[in-house]
Design a protein that fits this description.
Blueprint (H helix, E strand, L loop, with lengths): L7 E4 L5 H4 L4 E3 L3 E5 L7 E5 L5 E7 L5 E7 L8 H18 L4 E6 L8 E6 L2 E6 L2 H19 L7 E6 L12 E5 L6 E6 L2 E6 L13 H6 L1 H4 L3 E5 L5 H8 L4 E6 L2 H13 L6 E5 L2 H10 L4 E6 L11 H17 L1 E11 L6 H15 L1 E9 L19 E9 L2
Parallel strand pairs: 1-4, 9-10, 14-15, 14-17, 15-16, 17-18
Antiparallel strand pairs: 1-3, 2-6, 4-5, 5-6, 7-8, 8-9, 10-11, 12-13, 18-20, 19-20
């Protein structure tokens, strides 16, 4: 990497407010001019309108977020040693806050490496590269991850790339997935909260498994002993199997994906829970009213839906969806039972999500007693900046009581 940055982007006067609050993004309409030549993906300097140094970042005019900062200090140029320190800081943090047998090692902006995610599943890494600039640094970052983990005696036997998110197209990039280095068996066995899972890093959703709910899944254990549990949007059975391991008397996991349910049943067999935990392929929105009509009631209902909105434009429809499933879910909870409900949409902000749940409770004529509010696991940290773009998961546990 070059030690010199001869190209500089200058902000318009009055712009860069988010940047000045600690954010890492520079939008195309904030830039007054770019002085010097560059190729998309190059690292350049960023200065305020008056020449004040703001940072080093990579540029891509094809993206509305034209520059993403990597460093805010003029003496911290983007060298191999700089990237190594970023990775080491990220790993040292995770060793402190979470079980690292399987965890997110790099979480983009939250680890000051915007545009890249690296998940560790035992001795396999899965990388997701979302931007052109970070794609050019990807191999150096992965080498740094392997070296830093190696210092703790962890040998990585394979790397798989899951850069198949649609957002890459906004960067003018193709979606891609495949091996980095030698091929290996992409079915990885992990243990989380004592539950064994087979993770499919090639064809599973996102990078293969939703690590962000690790601590939230552990939090339901104390609710489930000897209880009847319904797990909606179960995916590969993660909450359902945690409930089963915690001693639930009966668990039903529901998901619309036949592949997901097939994997969930396999995971149940792995944990010898097939007698307690069963799974059904169904649309949750259709099934919940049917269960209500049949008179089914549960001690614990878990709602872990996919993001109903990935943009501000569709937020109204998302609110309707969250309100509907929460209302239906509450009606299935026995008096004094528990509802675990969450949203993983960044655009469904905490205040709006709380208001939507409250509206659902009013519609269901239920009263909610909040047990706790949780967010994403600490290996998915969110940094308090001007945009809060790394904060997305909201998770509530409520006791549901009849109106008295």
């Amino acid at each position: 990497m070059s030690e010199q940055y001869t190209t500089t982007a200058y902000l318009r006067k009055g712009e860069g407010r988010t940047l000045k609050k600690g954010g890492l993004w520079v939008y195309d309409n904030e830039i007054d001019r770019v002085e010097g030549d560059f190729t998309p993906g190059d690292i350049i300097s960023v200065r305020d309108f008056d020449g004040y140094f703001m940072g080093y970042g990579y540029i891509n005019p094809a993206s509305r977020i034209e520059i993403r900062l990597l460093s805010r200090k003029e003496e911290h140029k983007i060298t191999e040693s700089f990237l190594m320190q970023r990775v080491r800081d990220a790993w040292n943090y995770r060793k402190t806050v979470i079980d690292t047998s399987s965890c997110r090692v790099i979480f983009g902006e939250a680890d000051y490496l915007p545009g890249i995610v690296v998940d560790k599943f035992e001795d396999v890494l899965v990388v997701e590269s979302l931007t052109l600039g970070i794609d050019l640094l990807k191999m150096q970052i992965l080498e740094a991850v392997q070296k830093v983990l190696g210092e703790d005696g962890i040998r990585i036997r394979g790397i798989y790339e899951r850069s198949d998110a649609k957002v890459r197209e906004q960067e003018g990039m193709e979606r891609y997935k495949g091996f980095i280095g030698e091929p290996f068996d992409t079915k990885i066995r992990i243990v989380e909260n004592g539950v064994i899972f087979n993770v499919d890093v090639e064809d599973g959703q996102k990078t293969g498994f939703f690590l962000d709910q690790k601590n939230n899944r552990a939090a339901i254990h104390r609710l489930c002993k000897d209880k009847k549990v319904l797990d909606c949007f179960t995916h590969t059975g993660s909450f359902a199997l945690n409930a089963g391991l915690a001693g639930a008397s009966e668990v039903l996991g529901v998901d619309a994906s036949e592949l997901g349910i097939e994997q969930a049943r396999e995971n149940a067999r792995l944990n010898h829970l097939e007698g307690t935990v069963s799974f059904q392929v169904a649309d949750v929105f259709d099934l919940l009213p049917e269960l209500e009509q049949k008179g089914e009631r549960y001690d614990v209902v878990i709602l872990d839906p996919p993001a109903f909105t990935k943009s501000r434009n569709s937020i109204k429809n998302a609110v309707k969806g969250y309100r509907e499933i929460n209302l239906r879910g509450m009606k299935l909870v026995k008096d004094g039972g528990y509802l675990c409900t969450c949203s993983c949409s960044h655009f469904m902000d905490p205040e709006l999500f709380a208001r939507t749940i409250k509206e659902a409770a009013n519609g269901a004529h239920k009263r909610l007693r909040q047990v706790e509010f949780r967010t994403q696991a600490p290996d998915h940290p969110f940094v308090w900046t001007g945009e809060e773009n790394s904060y997305y998961l909201k998770f509530y546990i409520f006791q549901v009581v009849e109106e008295k």
